[in-house]
Write a sequence for this structure.
């Protein structure tokens, strides 16, 4: 699929359309999560894939990694402001799926994302 580097839709799709990426953003909408928590919530994702997705989202400044100087070390991931700006897209996808595809969220936490401030 040819990608137009000047098209904002193509640019956004290039970042978020990787397998698991939108589900990872959805799960991080609830706040800080540790790697093992994300791995549990995304049943079927391999640790390598999760690590690659998190790293790619960090590089795009969508996810930030917090490392705590503890023994054993603790690492948490959270959405940045840029990442939270993607949450309305996920809300719209949920609404579309419910209306047109008959889908429902299996996880009660999926039904309500935290409120998102308007993005200019």
């Amino acid at each position: 699929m040819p990608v137009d580097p000047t098209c904002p839709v193509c640019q956004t799709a290039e970042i978020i359309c990787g397998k698991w990426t939108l589900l990872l953003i959805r799960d991080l909408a609830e706040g800080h999560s540790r790697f093992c928590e994300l791995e549990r919530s995304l049943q079927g994702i391999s640790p390598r894939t999760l690590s690659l997705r998190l790293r790619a989202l960090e590089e795009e400044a969508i996810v930030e990694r917090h490392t705590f100087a503890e023994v054993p070390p603790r690492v948490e991931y959270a959405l940045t402001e840029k990442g939270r700006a993607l949450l309305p897209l996920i809300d719209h996808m949920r609404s579309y799926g419910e209306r047109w595809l008959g889908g429902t969220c299996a996880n009660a936490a999926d039904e309500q994302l935290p409120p998102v401030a308007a993005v200019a």
Summary: The longest strand covers residues 63-68. Strands lie at 33-34, 63-68, 74-79. Residues 8-111 form a domain with the Arc Repressor Mutant, subunit A fold (CATH 1.10.10.10). The helical segments are 8-16, 21-28, 35-41, 47-59, 81-84, 87-100, 108-111.
